[in-house]
Amino acid sequence: MSDLNKNIEKLAGYLKRFQDGGVLNQIGGKAVPAKAGATFETRSPVDDSLICQVARGGAEDIDAAAKAAKEAFPAWRDFAATERKKVLHRIADRIVERAEEIAFCECWDTGQALRFMSKAAIRGAENFRFFADRAPAARDGQALPSPTLLNVTTRVPIGPVGVITPWNTPFMLSTWKIAPALAAGCTVVHKPAEFSPVTARILMEIAEEAGLPAGVWNLVNGFGEDAGKALTEHPDIKAIAFVGESKTGSMIMKQGADTLKRVHFELGGKNPVIVFDDADLDRALDAAIFMIYSLNGERCTSSSRLLVQDTIADEFEAKLVERVNNIRVGHPLDPKTEIGPLIHKTHFDKVTSYFDIAREGGATVAAGGERAGDTGWFVRPTLFTGASNDMRIAQEEIFGPVLTSIRFKTEEEALELANAVEYGLTGYVWTNDLSRALRFTGKLEAGMIWVNSENVRHLPTPFGGVKASGIGRDGGDWSFEFYMEQKHIGFATGQHAIPRLGA
Ligand code: NAD
């Protein structure tokens, strides 16, 4: 039996319980259907077949979940941090034990290739371990003595929080947002993306099996415009950690205004990879290809705009075409597959619409530019050349395996092109000129920049974007800054003079 067939057989075993019972919500430690009894379908992008029914939560389910999170908050806040650390490590252990199940379900639900999803499950465990280890120090503060007072600072968890996640790597992104919230002492209501609900359910179950008290983590499935909106408007929810599109972020900011929500946004990107002619071009080529064609290009940090110096552009683009045409598109559970199907028909329609937009705008479709196969939402990895920065393919987030190549002459021009988009998430600079790298990175408008490297995530570093790419940072202590409130306490050290009114 081929590896693919073996994997498909195993997947059937993992999915059986969802096919029988659907994906339920979890509120106050209980698996429950939506109060109104409504459901929706999740379908596989491989062949559009039904995976299972999913509870379609609405405002009343969010209300119940928020109340459960509120009720569970004081005990979780006061849970000894050393014990919290142990629970979070146990969650990580169980993620590792069930990594194959998580990866297989994720592949089938999202279309992402197994070679990446098996690593994403393990990265999810690492996120829990990273924040578990930091939990005991999360409340540490400073001593800031003044002549009359001993001023100390401490941090306290903000309260129940809402976490809203997208579909592109749903398992990993959920761990990334929820692990620090729990480590800080917050309780959580999670609303996963409607296109990819399966692994969020597995993750939540793992957490309760690992000893997380009931109500600390609640899960409500549903659509953005009802369950998502209700979560952002709920008065008991103190903050919203959101990962998704920039326009959704702006809606959430409006929805959360009446209840003065603290928000953390990780939004879209149109990230440049800038290749100067003095760079190590073989490594630049590998990195540029990896950063746009891995994860189906459904990656916020993807290098979707190639800015290449005109002196090397012909050669670089020719090599690109050869490699892009070689990328293996196939079944996500086939270990050899490099690109799987796009998440959903609506997203497939969006991505493929840019093939005509490119042609009509005057660019050349140098590779791909068509669907792959007759069933499912597969597209050929695509490269547009001869593009200019004002074209829609250079400005809009396509969020698929589609790269737009634009040529530049000088460093100044490269910088101007790189910054002339509404987004500012990441940038990738390829040059062996150290002073140019310093100058360029200083002026590049992006929250994260890698020089002579693809995106290599290091959890202590800040993750996030500028401009329309986001507000706030994840990682290191920045995650705790979002999920916690600073508190100042001043202790009088003596009998300083207190101004006396009416004496
Ligand atoms: P999306 O904004 O459509 O949906 C994300 C989530 O928001 C879903 O759970 C959805 O149900 C919910 N939602 C939608 N409308 C809502 C509303 N009015 N109120 C509350 N919740 C609402 O995004 P998507 O299509 O699922 O994901 C792709 C996007 O995510 C891309 O733009 C990508 O760049 C971005 N992304 C960013 C990062 C990052 O770290 N910056 C990481 C991954 C993905």
Explain what the structure shows.
This protein has 503 residues and is an alpha/beta fold. The protein folds into two domains: 3-267 and 469-488, Aldehyde Dehydrogenase, Chain A, domain 1, CATH 3.40.605.10; 272-451, 3-Layer(aba) Sandwich (Aldehyde Dehydrogenase, Chain A, domain 2), CATH 3.40.309. It contains 16 helices and 21 strands. The protein has helices spanning 3-21, 59-78, 81-97, 99-110, 114-134, 170-184, 198-209, 224-233, 246-255, 281-293, 310-326, 345-361, 392-395, 411-419, 434-443, 478-483; strands at residues 25-27, 30-32, 39-43, 50-55, 149-157, 161-164, 188-191, 217-219, 239-243, 262-266, 272-275, 305-309, 364-367, 382-387, 402-408, 423-424, 426-430, 448-451, 466-467, 470-471, 484-492. Strand 1 and strand 2 form a beta hairpin. Helix 2 crosses helix 8, helix 3 packs antiparallel against helix 5 (114-134) and helix 10 (281-293) packs across helix 11. The longest helix has 21 residues, at 114-134. Residues 164-168, 173, 191, 193-194, 223-225, 228-229, 232, 243-245, 248, 251-252, 255, 266-269, 300, 397, 399, 425, 465, 470 line the site of nicotinamide-adenine-dinucleotide. This is 5-carboxymethyl-2-hydroxymuconate semialdehyde dehydrogenase. InterPro entries: Ald_DH/histidinol_DH (IPR016161), Ald_DH_C (IPR016163), Ald_DH_CS_GLU (IPR029510), Ald_DH_N (IPR016162), Aldehyde_DH_dom (IPR015590), DH_HpaE (IPR011985). One of its GO terms (biological process) is 4-hydroxyphenylacetate catabolic process. Keywords: NAD, Oxidation, Oxidoreductase.
